[in-house]
Structure formats: C-alpha cells, structure tokens
Amino acid sequence: MAANPLPTRVRTANDSDDEPIPDGDPSNTSGLLLERLQAWKHMCGYLENYVSAVAKDQAARAKDQEKILKTLSSPLREGHHFDTALGGVAGLFENLRANTQAQSNLYTETSKNLSGSVLPVLERLHTEIKNKNKEITNGAGKGSKAVEQSRATSQKHIELLGQQAAHFDSTGGKVSAQHDPYVLKRGTLHRLNKQLLEENNNRQDLIAVQNSFAQFEAHIITTVQTALNSYNQFMSGEADRLKAMFGDIASTASNIPLDFEWNGFVRRNQHLLVNPSAPPRSLESASFPNENHRSTKPLIEGSLERRHRGMGALKGYSSGYYVITPAGFLHEYKDNDNFHKDPTPEVSLYLPDCVVGAVDGQKFTIKGKDSSGGKLGQKMAISSDFQFKAHTNSDAQQWHSVITSFSQSSNSVPTSPAESRNVTPITTRMDDQSQGVTSGPNSGVSPQAGHYSGSATYAAPAPAGPYHGAPASNALEDRKYFEKY
C-alpha cells in the first residue's frame, strides 16, 4: 500500500501575488524620518559648537591684543629724541596704541555679538528639532508599533489556518469546531482587515509627517541661513574695521615727512650740534691761555748750520732751525713745522751753563751739555763742543750777542736747571722782548711749516736778574775751565 502524500497548501481565488505581510518593517519609514531628524540635530549642534568656538577665539584675541598693547611702552625710551608734535614718530606710536586698543575692543564686541545673537538662534533650532523628534515618536511612531502588533496577530492566525487545513486533509475531515478551517479563515480575514486598516491609518500619518517634514526642513535651512547671515555680518564687519585700522596705521606712517624728525632734532639741539653753515676753525682764530705769555716769545730764532760731532764730522755742517727762549735755552729743531709732527727739540742747551766762544766770521762755538733727553740722560750727558755757522757775519753777531747775554752776569759755577733749583729766573718784560726785532714775521708767532727765515730774528732781552755766565774771561781760564769739565 502506497503511503499517502504529505498535505500541501492549496492556492485559492483570494490569494494574490502580493504577500499579505510585505517584506520589511513598516516602522522603517518612521525610523528613517527619526534618523534624519537626528542628522539635522547633529548638524545644528556642529554649528553651535563652531560659533561658540569662534566667540571664544574672539575673546582670546581680545586678551592677546591687550598683551600686544603692553609691548608699546608709553612713553618711548629716549623719547626726547622724537618730536612730540603730531605727524612724527611719537604720533605714529600714539596711533598704534589707539588702534591696538580698538582692535581689542572690537574682538570683545564680536565675541559678545556671536554669543548673544547668533548662538541663541541655533540653540532654539536645536530645541525645535528635538520637539519634532518627540512628535514623530509619539504619533507615527506609535501607529507603526500598532501595525507591527496587528501583523504579528494576522501572521499567527494564517499559520494556524495552514496547520488545520493540513490536519483536515490528513484526518479525512475530522476537526473540532474551533479548528474548523472555515472558522479559522473568517477569523484570519477579520484580523487581516484590522491590520490593513491600521496600516492605512499609519500610512496616512506617515504621509502627513513626510509632507510636514519638507516644510520643517525648509524651516531648518532658513534658520541656519539667518544665523550664518548674522555671523557673516558680524565677522565681515569686524574684518572691514580691522582693515581700516591697519590702513590707518600704514597711512600715519606713510605721511611722516622724511626730514620731520631730523629737522625737529636739529631745532631742539642746535646748541649742541655742529652748524654746517659756520666756517671751519683755523689756527689763526684759535686762542688758548698764556699763548702770548712773555716766556713763550723767542728772543731770536732762525736758520743756523751746526757741524756734526764724532763720526758725523765728516758730513760737515747741516742746517736746522734754532730758537733762544727767555728761559735761557738754545733749542735745535729739524724745521719750523708745528703741524705735521710734534716739534720736539733735537738738542737743548741751557746757555747759563754753557761756555761761549768768540765769533769767527760766520762761526761760533758753544760748549755745554745737551738737556733734551730725560733725567737719566741729562745726568749722564757730558759737555761737548757745538760749532755753529750763521748765514752772514751779522747774523752770527746777533746770535752771539743774545747767547752771551745769558753767560756774562755771574762767575759762579754754572748749574743746569735740571740739576738745581737755585738758578735765578729770567725776568724779561714783554715790551723789552718785542724791541729790537730786525727781520722776519716769525718772531713771537707760530712759524709756517718747512720755511726757514733767511736771517735770524732777534729780540734784545731786557736787563734782568743775575745769570750764570761763563766762569772764564781769557784763554788761560778757558783752558782751565775745559779741563775741569
């Protein structure tokens, strides 16, 4: 006996191609809309955070500007070097301080505007999105849950009908009244009808929500646009004002005349600065104390020739510039130039300590010690013969006359001023020193460089106190004096 085949469900005329329970959860519609609201809410939160961060940044910039302002110390160091009038460096720094303070105030104002005008708009929008979320959750969301319950009930009765229909086939129609497929079918139709009614109601609710959703999103966009337009107004206004401030700083600096500070500096310090219009100073216009003191005027000065000593005697005579001073010295210089090098005497003879020979034509001899060196050199110096030759016999007589005036007043033992302080000082009067000048403009004035006078310039000394003269008056005494020294 062949086994009976398993019972199968038979398609009826009421079956359709559409599944009574469609694939997918109908709550996905409301869930999708709720998820979209979450996206809008997060977008709004991002904008809130952005505007809040910008507001904090503006407040921080205001504090930074205060720090920058402290770098512009007031007043400027060495500020007296700058003109206090407007239009100069001092005015530029006043402008810098004013604009820097204005920038700090501007940043503070912008921060307050963003926090007080832009941020509240976004915060209110955020609250509206939350309320919309609650509205959908409590409306279409609940309808979707009711549809889910109805679908679950309908599915349960459809499965029960299938079981009892199969049981009917296998038992040959023996079923209970409660499980009669006819009864179950009618119950299923009832529940399916209820499900469809709830689905259609929920569908209408979702359509209404979707339609209102478009309007709500338009409201969101409009609100965001309003907030960002306000943001743009504040930020661009700040940028324009900052640009104007920076332009004012640059314009103030550009308008400073290039010679403004220098002219003011010269005007304030003209008593200290060099006057470029004044003529340069010259030695003729310069003066100093005691420049005309009687002790500074030579008794006679001019060119003489002196014979070299020792090995240099082979060279004969060499020319030099010689001066006899009221102090009793005969100084030898290489020339009469006071400017190109320091005029230091090559030889200095203290005439009161010297022995003077007679004039022989153009020549005469002086025996004495050179006092031009230091103290040690003066102590170690020995008496030597200095042979001089003038240009003419007349010049030789003039020089000899002045020289002997220092060596004829006393027969005491001569003593150099470097070795004794008991020498009677020369007391020559200015008027007496200026008498008897025979030639040359160089007497008593600074000689010009490198030009010797052709003949000696002589100023006869006035009678003075006792001088140390030569201790000998004849040839024998001269010889004794030489042997002694």
List the main descriptive attributes of the protein structure presented here.
485 residues; alpha+beta; Substrate Binding Domain Of Dnak, Chain:A, Domain 2; PH-domain like; 8-stranded antiparallel sheet; rod-shaped; disordered N terminus; disordered C terminus
Describe the structure.
- With 485 residues, the protein is an alpha+beta fold.
- It has two domains: 27-263, Substrate Binding Domain Of Dnak, Chain:A, Domain 2, CATH 1.20.1270.60; 294-484, Pleckstrin-homology domain (PH domain)/Phosphotyrosine-binding domain (PTB) (PH-domain like).
- It has helices at residues 27-71, 89-138, 140-171, 181-254, 260-268, 375-380, 393-404, 430-433, 475-484; strands at 300-307, 317-324, 329-333, 347-350, 355-356, 363-368, 384-389, 457-458.
- Strands 1, 2, 3, 4, 5, 6, 7 and 8 form an eight-stranded antiparallel sheet that branches.
- A hairpin with a 6-residue loop joins strand 5 (355-356) and strand 6.
- The termini are far apart.
- The relative contact order is 0.08.
- Residues 297-408 form the PH domain.
- Residues 452-473 have a biased composition (Low complexity).
- Residues 476-485 have a biased composition (Basic and acidic residues).
**How many extended strands?**
8
Query: What multimeric state do the chains show?
Result: single chain
Helix content: 40-55%
Return the CATH architecture of the largest domain.
Up-down Bundle
Largest sheet: 8 strands, antiparallel
Mean pLDDT: 77
Tell me the CATH superfamily of the largest domain: Arfaptin homology (AH) domain/BAR domain
- Based on CA atoms alone, the radius of gyration comes out at 65 Å
| Low-confidence parts | 1-27, 408-455, 460-485
Specify the CATH class of the largest domain.
Mainly Alpha
Secondary-structure element string = HHHHHEEEEEEHEHHEH
- Class by helix and strand content? alpha+beta
| Count of DSSP H/I helices | 9
What global shape is seen?
rod-shaped
Measured distance between first and last alpha carbons: 183 Å
Tally the structural domains: 2
